[in-house]
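From the methods appendix. Each design record in this collection lists the tokenized structure first, followed by the designed amino acid sequence. Records were kept in a plain field format so they could be parsed without special tools. The example shown here is representative of the layout used throughout.

RECORD:
FOLD TOKENS (75 positions):
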């Protein structure tokens, strides 16, 4: 993940925690000094990486769950 994409991810999560909803790509772009098209490209990269999910025109965060190693138990 590029440094700029990480910056977008950090902003998105910070906004989500503070405001209770995901920012628009226009808001992301304006806040991080980029066009909304570039913000959209970064959000698509984050979606491919599993950090956010688009549902129609809305974007939702996806909190990755830690993987749990299963160990065989011999009875």
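DESIGN:
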């Amino acid at each position: 993940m590029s440094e700029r994409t990480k910056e977008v991810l950090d902003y998105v999560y910070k906004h989500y925690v503070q405001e209770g909803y995901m920012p628009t790509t226009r808001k992301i772009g304006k806040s991080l000094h980029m066009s909304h098209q570039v913000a959209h490209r970064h959000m698509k990269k984050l979606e491919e990486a599993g950090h956010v999910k688009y549902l129609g025109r809305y974007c939702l965060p996806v909190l990755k769950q830690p993987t749990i190693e299963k160990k065989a138990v011999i009875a």
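APPENDIX NOTE: Confidence is low (pLDDT under 50) at residues 65-70.
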